[in-house]
Structures are given as C-alpha cells and as structure tokens.
Amino acid sequence: MKKILISDKLAEDGINFLNAQEGIQIHIQTGLSEDELCEIIPEFDALLIRSDTQVTAKVLKAATRLKVVGRAGIGVDNVDLNAATEQGVIVMNTPDANATTTAELAIAHMFSLSRNLPFANQSVRDGKWERSKLMGAEIAHKTLAVLGFGTIGRIVAQRGNGLGMRVIAYDPFVAPDVFAKHGAEMVDLEALVKQADYLTLHCPLLEKTKNIIGRDQLAMMKKSARLINCARGGLVDESGLYDALKEGRIAGAALDVYEQEPPKDSPLLTLDNVVFTPHLGASTKEAQVAVSVEIARQAVKYLQTGEAVNALNLPRLSAEELSKAQPFMNLANILGKVLVGLIDQPIQKLEVAVYGKAAEVKIRPISAEAMVGLLGGQLSTPVNRVNVENIAKRQGITLIESQTEESEGYQSLIKITGHCADKSVSLAGTLLGNQHPRLVSINHFEIEVVPEGALLITRHDDKPGVIAAISSILGVANINITRMQVSIADEHQLAMMVISVSDPLSEQVLKSVCEVPAVHTARQIAL
To answer: Where is the signal peptide (predicted)?
Structure first.
C-alpha cells in the first residue's frame, strides 16, 4: 500500500481520483509546521502540496520513505530541490495545467480594452450613459502579436485565429514549423512590436527578458496598439509604459502582473487607459481542479510505474556511473551554452556525436546535458536531464545521436551541431587529463579555448590592426583580457578570435566592438 500525504488544500476532484486508485491510501492534514511535518512524514511515499507547505532539507531528511513531492501548480520555490535530489526524492509540478486559464485571461483583457468594458460598467453604475465617449474597436482582422510561444502563447494564437485575427509571434527558442502548426507567422521582435495591434506577453522573466518591452520597443508601436501582460511583472518597463500611455503614444494596456505586487504606488494607477487585475492568471475553478487532478495522476503514475512526468530534479546516480560520465556531461553542457550564444535563430535539429573514450559511456546523458546547456535559463521552468527531452520536443527540436570509438585525433571528442532554417553551427570539445574541458573548434575554425567565465567571440577580416582595435576598446572600458586565441584565416580571409575577459561587456562596449570596420560579428557568452 502506497501512502500519500496531502498537506495543502487540493480540489475534491483530485482527492476523489486518489481515493479511486487501488493500492493508494491518502491522508489529509493541512497547516503543518516544519516540526509537525517532520514528525509524520516518515510514514509516506508521496507528499502533495501547493504553495503553503515548506519542504525543507530538514523535512526531506526526516522523510525516509518518501519517493516523490508533487506541486499542484508551477512554482517550486517552497521545495529544496537540491536536498530532494540528495535524498533521491523526485519533485514534479504541473506546468501546463493552468495554461488555458491564463490564455483566456489574455483574450478577455483584449476584449476589455477594445470595448472599454470596465469603464462602461462604472459609467452605468454612476448613472451615466456615455455611448460616444466609450467608442470601441473591433478585434476581427487586426494583428495579434504573441511574445513567447510556449503552451500559453500557442493557445492564445489558436484563439486569435478563431476570432479572425492575423496572428504573428516571436520566440527565439521555438522551431518554425511549431509556429505554422499553431497558426502563427514567425517574425522577429522588431517586426512583432511594429505590426502589433494587440501585443500579448507569454514569456518567462529571465535576465535577458527583463524589460523586453522597454522604451525603445514602446516607441515602435502603433498609436492604436494595446499591450497585454498576463505573464510576469518585469517584462515591461512600467516607467516607459506610463509615459507611452500618458502621452497617447499607444492606445491602452491591460496588466495582470506587476514589478511590485500589489502595485500600491504605481503611477499607472492614475491613468484611465489601463485595465488592472490582481494576478488572476490561474484563478479559475477549472484551473484549480486541473492542477489538483494532474498532480494526483502524476504522483500515482510515478508510484506505480516509476515514470516521472514533469520531474524537476535529477534522480541519484551511482558513484561509479557519475564518476565515469560526469566529465563528458559537463563538457556537453558547456558546448550547449556556447552554441545558444552563437545562434540567433530557433534550432530545429541538434546533432550530438561522441568519439573515442566519450563513446565508452552511454550517449543519452551526454546528449541530455547538451540540450540542458542549450535550453537552460531560456524558459520559466527548471531544465535538467529529467525533463529536457520533453521540453525540446515542445520547442520543436529533433535530437540526433551518434557515437564511434574513432578518436579523430583526440582521446575523446564531443561534437554538437545546431541546425536552423538557413544555417548550422558546429562546435567540438575535448577533455585534457580526462577532466579539463576545452573548446577545440567552432564550425571550420580550429581554435583551442578554455570555456569559462565571460567570452567575446568575433569573426573578422584577417588583417593587421583588428586585434589592436578591439583590445583598445576593452582597455578604455577597463576590461582586462585574461586569455586570447585567434584561428588561422579561412578561404574567405576571415579569422575567428575568442577573448576571455575579466568582466562582462556592457551593451555599449559590445556595440563598439561590432562597429570596428573589419569585424563581421561579435558575440558575448557567459559560462
């Protein structure tokens, strides 16, 4: 008999599902303190939670029988993932169970903005009849621009198509055929912003997406455009949005999320062309039922079959397996990180090839780590070897693997190649002393690089003065060069240079490097 503890409130449908399963016994006890949870947790095989229960290292250490923690929802900030991994406990969530609810809120906001519904409602309540003042706009035949094309963005696109809208979308980590499959035209960020009648955001908040809609992007939008954010506060520069709305440079905005929640002192609250909701993205009865039923299903499946759906952490490896595979996995992860920094288009296919000693271990953990390096930090959910294959499939990425004991001049070698719609980028790496990773080639350029810290990678004309010009720019910016490698020129008289720098380059410094006449491309990668 498998025993499941439910320590936060779950919908009745989820509880009823569990009660109907053979070999499953549930116990419901909410509001437990850490000590109280530690006292009873040794009896249970699974723990189902929402956001209230704190699954600390102390709790996990006490959970001698525990196999899985299931979070009914997306966020797992209340679970110590490292401690769970150390104890061999799988942690899973339900990332897609409330996707429809959030997508529908975005569509609702689109209608609300277009027909001035909140203000019309208040006007009638105030005894007014302001029909001419509340003139609206039709949605049909307008352009719906979707920023972020994950599960929620795809549902929004489908709804937009159903409303007779033209749908365009931008997501640099989704393959082109995924856009077409869901009825959206793939465009770049600038085209998305310029063409939008309605711009709706559905991407995670990461370092690279913070203020992704800033003053520059707002300045590109049509005066008749409306912005909708039901994703994450911080994606939009609220100061810039306030100015754009106040000055009439865009027509309106609808916000469900904010830089600070609640937005008590935000100047946006003083504007009458903004619609507000209090972070209601997942707040429907159906969504609460969906996450409860889904996490119940996932927990039972894991207890009965061992299949970990939406797992967020890694199962424990034996010391022998880890010792043998870890150096190659680390190298593959690094190659994935470098690859994503060199490609500015969605990857449709990833090839992973291992040679020599690297072929003596199973290739799948190596391939998985290459994909983790590629996708990690680009999405809202944690990415690891457990979930990366499913995530890659969702992004439209096909994995191709090959291995051979031939070494190609190295004791061990790993090659990864990312194929985009109109180009491919290939990297190769090896290990020195079976431990120390080295990047040995980028496309056809042979160049040995220590892949760590901040790297500046350039392609430039092979002629005197280029290296000096770049070095001068870095010197003026007080950035020290710790290592520098330059390849032999190719048949086009182009060389490649990789510079390890003491500090990351600012946007302005990187722009100055790109403006050196002989420089064709310059990219910065943080490892």
So the answer is: none
